[in-house]
């Protein structure tokens, strides 16, 4: 009986976890709506909604003995009750406390009710005290330290990877469920099913596509046989008169003589007559087989397609699941940067494969962060430019076709400084200067998506490492999508991302290179051409072909892939086949040996053993198990571009740096922090010097060769700002990279870091070892 009760409580707590997440999502969304409410907004209705969410959450917590959540919700209800009776008015600082309350409950749930240390109890008591004070009209301050401790490193909570920044507790909220105010008030009956089970079901149904495709191949094979039989029939009819003449001749010969030759010929003629009759029987059977196979193919195709479509619909999710978390994120970023932004979302009801939606979460976060940090100006600057002090970011989702969607992120900020992008790309060795001069503005702006390219004046926890947009580009490419940018100075930037709706199948062109079959995705192909060898011209040492009065780089696909081809055969071939492919703003022409057809392609993963194969994105299976590689257009273009460019000299200096250990000077007055930073850098292979303040650090700089300075700000004798300013004013040290690492996190502190000449600014509360090493590696 006791075991049954324990099992019941376990299941009850699991159900509460799911329900609590929904309540917290709705609370967060409701708070955003109230904070951004206009005069026409029914604030009373919004307050009633979130009050019910808090009350329901409290009741659920009571049922599973989560007393901490119950106490927090009670205090939250007191605040909401005061708001409903209009006895208090909330300010932005008040909302910070309410958002922190939602975050604390979420973190408490992620630990399954197990507090991490003794301080957590004090933090919860402090938050409840703040809520109670808020309900009385006071506005207490809230520090990030008031949140529950982070989980230990060996058992981190499951979150999406964020390679370019450290999430603050206010950002690590769960994804809210989609809300469609146009749907009927009475929802459909639903059940909760594990996504793993649904993914397994979809994978099994996707495997059935192989059966559909191979059965289609069998129908085509039978049709080819029938065509061969028809050609045989035409040839037989053409020789019919000759057979009759020969038979008449043999019959006459038998009447006059009976020799072995005429007897043999007569036997052959009889055999051909029998064969003709037997052949017609076979022809009839094959014709019936063809009709039956075609019918079976149509039926199986219909069943597989319908089953796959219905299963996809189950796994399709609206963009609103992802996008409705963005208002809170935008609000938090704007608060930290001192900016104001109105976020407008259109098309959240459009559905897409859940797998694609999950993969696009981090890229979209990076793009929104960049729009706010780099694009949107400060309220003062916007008013000076004649703009509204509040910036505007529009996210629009549009369905382009039955198989593609477009995500458009547009802001009305200052636009992208293309010249700064070019300088950053040159500094990062992403492109040679002679090649940069040949790029148009549209092509140059795409350099932002090269990993390491950043136009930020300083590296912070939010931006500047040049990794974010590189991750965006890689992720979109891996999903089979494309990115386009349109930017105008002081008018804003529009970034368009085209993506497939599902990952299961696509249209591809089947080509041959030597004896190797390959597939090129159709949506990256501009056209297919048949040219002569004379059409290939050499310009500046590069082979090109002319299409619509434009010279396009030409390269043999066999050279990119390293596929051996019969040289004698190639010399005898005067005709060449060309596929023109385009990725972003780069177009190249690929020479292939044969273009077979366009067909539906079922995507098969390469498996754990081949997680990354250059120039190959996946594979497909056709014709009873024949495996054909699917080319990665982006890799192909990169490989083709590298082959046409000579190696850049800056790479050599990089190799020298790798051979020589570099020296970093740490200026930090706190012993614990100084030892922690020293251990991290020692482990990373750097030579580390230490100083207890800015004055000692500057003394070391005048005596020893230092490659980078990592400094705290608040130090005795000479602080970090003063040290940085003194380094910049020195003739011998003014190019030395300086990284400020401080607990000071305000916008004014970061701006002062830029003014004195720091190269990077890391906030200690958001400190991560990987971010520190990544920043140092970029600056060195």
What would you say this structure looks like, in words?
The chain has 780 residues and is α/β, with parallel strands linked by helices. Helices cover 49% and strands 19% of the residues. The protein is built from 26 helices and 23 strands. The strands form 6 sheets. It has a 6-stranded mixed sheet with strand order 10-14-15-13-12-11. The chain has a 5-stranded mixed sheet with strand order 2-4-5-7-6, covered by helices on one side. β17 and β18 form a beta hairpin. α10 runs parallel beside α12. The longest helix is centred in the middle third of the chain and has 56 residues. The relative contact order is 0.06. About 8% of the residues have low confidence.
Brief overview, please?
It is built from 26 helices and 23 strands.
Q: Supply Rg.
A: 35 Å
Which geometry do the CA atoms define? globular
Class of secondary structure makeup:
alpha/beta
What is the average of the pLDDT values?
76
| Number of DSSP-assigned strands | 23
Residue ranges: pLDDT <50 for 5 or more in a row? 144-187, 645-659
Question: What's the main sheet like?
Answer: 6 strands, mixed
Strand order of the largest sheet: 10-14-15-13-12-11
Indicate the proportion of strand residues.
Answer: 15-25%
Helix coverage percent: 40-55%
């Amino acid at each position: 009986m006791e075991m049954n009760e324990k099992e019941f409580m376990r299941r009850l707590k699991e159900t509460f976890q799911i329900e609590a997440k929904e309540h917290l999502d709705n609370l967060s969304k409701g708070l955003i709506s109230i904070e951004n409410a206009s005069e026409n907004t029914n604030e009373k209705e919004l307050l009633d909604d979130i009050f019910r969410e808090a009350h329901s959450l409290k009741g659920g917590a009571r049922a599973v003995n989560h007393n901490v959540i119950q106490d927090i919700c009670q205090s939250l209800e007191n605040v909401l009750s005061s708001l409903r009776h209009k006895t208090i008015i909330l300010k932005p600082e008040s909302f910070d406390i309410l958002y922190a309350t939602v975050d604390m409950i979420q973190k408490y749930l992620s630990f399954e009710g197990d507090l991490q240390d003794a301080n957590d109890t004090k933090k919860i008591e402090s938050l409840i005290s703040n809520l109670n004070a808020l309900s009385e009209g006071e506005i207490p301050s809230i520090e990030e330290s008031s949140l529950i401790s982070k989980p230990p490193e060996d058992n981190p909570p499951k979150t999406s990877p964020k390679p370019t920044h450290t999430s603050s507790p206010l950002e690590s909220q769960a994804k809210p469920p989609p809300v469609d105010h146009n749907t009927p008030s009475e929802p459909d009956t639903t059940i909760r099913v594990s996504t793993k089970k649904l993914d397994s079901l979809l994978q099994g149904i996707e495997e059935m596509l192989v059966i559909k495709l191979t059965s289609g191949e069998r129908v085509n094979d039978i049709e080819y046989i029938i065509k061969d039989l028809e050609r045989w029939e035409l040839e037989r009819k053409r020789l019919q008169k000759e057979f009759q003449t020969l038979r008449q001749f043999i019959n006459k010969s038998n009447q006059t003589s009976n020799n072995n030759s005429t007897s043999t010929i007569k036997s052959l003629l009889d055999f051909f007559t029998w064969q003709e009759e037997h052949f017609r029987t076979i022809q009839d059977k094959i014709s019936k087989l063809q009709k039956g196979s075609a019918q079976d193919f149509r039926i199986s195709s219909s069943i597989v397609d319908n089953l796959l479509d219905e299963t996809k619909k189950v796994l399709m999710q609206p963009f609103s699941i992802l996008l409705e978390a963005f208002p809170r994120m935008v609000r938090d970023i704007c608060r930290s940067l001192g900016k104001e932004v109105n976020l407008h979302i259109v098309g959240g009801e459009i559905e897409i494969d859940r797998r694609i939606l999950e993969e696009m979460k981090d890229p979209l976060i990076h793009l929104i962060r960049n729009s706010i940090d780099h694009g949107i100006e400060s309220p003062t600057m916007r008013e000076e430019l004649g703009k509204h002090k509040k910036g505007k970011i529009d996210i629009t989702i549009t369905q382009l076709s039955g198989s593609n969607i477009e995500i458009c992120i547009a802001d009305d900020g200052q636009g992208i400084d293309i010249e700064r992008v070019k300088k950053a790309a040159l500094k990062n060795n992403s492109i040679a200067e002679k090649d940069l001069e040949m790029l148009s503005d549209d092509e140059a702006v795409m350099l932002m998506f090269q990993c390491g390219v950043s136009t930020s004046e300083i590296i912070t926890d939010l931006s500047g490492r040049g990794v974010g947009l590189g991750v965006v580009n890689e992720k979109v490419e891996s999903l089979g999508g494309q990115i386009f940018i349109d930017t105008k100075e002081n008018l804003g930037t529009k970034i368009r991302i085209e993506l497939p709706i599902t990952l299961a199948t696509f249209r591809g062109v089947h080509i041959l290179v030597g004896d190797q079959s390959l597939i090129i995705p159709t949506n990256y192909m501009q056209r297919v051409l048949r040219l002569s060898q004379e059409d290939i011209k050499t310009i500046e040492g590069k082979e090109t072909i002319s299409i619509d009065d434009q010279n396009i780089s030409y390269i043999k696909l066999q050279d990119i892939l390293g596929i051996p081809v019969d040289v004698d055969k190639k010399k005898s071939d005067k005709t060449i086949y060309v596929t023109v492919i385009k990725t972003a703003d780069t177009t190249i022409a690929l020479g292939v040996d044969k273009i077979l057809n366009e067909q539906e392609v079922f995507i098969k993963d390469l498996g754990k053993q081949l997680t990354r194969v250059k120039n190959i994105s996946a594979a497909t299976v056709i014709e009873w198990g024949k495996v054909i590689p699917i080319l990665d257009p982006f890799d192909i273009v990169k490989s083709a571009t590298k082959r046409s460019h000579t190696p850049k000299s800056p790479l050599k200096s990089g190799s020298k740096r790798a051979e020589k250990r570099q020296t970093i000077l740490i200026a930090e007055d706190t012993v614990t922090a100084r030892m922690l930073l020293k251990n991290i850098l020692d482990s990373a292979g750097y030579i580390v010097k230490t100083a207890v303040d800015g004055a000692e650090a500057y003394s070391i700089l005048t005596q020893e060769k230092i490659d980078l300075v990592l400094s705290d700000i608040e130090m005795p004798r000479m602080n970090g700002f003063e040290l940085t300013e003194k380094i910049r004013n020195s003739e011998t040290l003014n190019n030395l990279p300086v990284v400020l690492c401080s607990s000071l996190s305000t916008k004014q502190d970061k701006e002062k870091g830029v003014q004195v000449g720091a190269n990077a600014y890391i906030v200690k509360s958001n400190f991560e070892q990987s971010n520190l090493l990544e920043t140092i590696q970029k600056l060195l």
